Amino acid sequence: MLTHGHDDHIGDTLRIAEETEAEIVANFDLCMWLEGQGAKKINPGNPGDKIPRGNFSVGITDARHSASTVEAGAPV
């Protein structure tokens, strides 16, 4: 689960997801960017969505926070 696209949150997400075949859960824009970077299993959501994960769900909420990415200037 990624909260937003800052490089200190994305970190090694792509490598870890590839090595473990983990699904990446994040907001729609970030998932689309990660897919463009090679992510295979994504589960995008939008504010207000609840994404089921076994016996719990992950809620996507709107946060007033900038959203830069690893690549300077690439908005997500």
N-to-C SSE string, H for helix and E for strand: HHEHEEE
**Strand residues, percent:** 15-25%
Count of extended strands: 4
Share of residues in helices: 25-40%
Order of adjacent strands in the largest pleated sheet: 1-2
Helical stretch count?
3
Low-confidence stretches: none
Please identify the oligomeric state. Answer: single chain
Please describe the biggest sheet, giving its number of strands, its sense, and whether it closes into a barrel.
2 strands, parallel
Task: For the record, give the distance between the C-alpha atoms at the N and C termini, rounded to a whole number.
Answer: 16 Å
Could you say which overall geometry the principal axes of the C-alpha atoms support? globular
Strand pairing plus helix content: what structural class?
alpha+beta
What is the C-alpha radius of gyration, as a whole number of Å? Answer: 12 Å
Walk me through the structure.
By secondary structure, the chain is α+β, with helices and mostly antiparallel strands. The protein contains 3 helices and 4 strands. It has a domain of 53 residues. 28% of the residues lie in helices and 21% in strands. The chain is globular, with a radius of gyration of 12 Å.
Annotation keywords:
21% strand, two-stranded parallel sheet, 76 residues, globular, alpha+beta, two-stranded antiparallel sheet
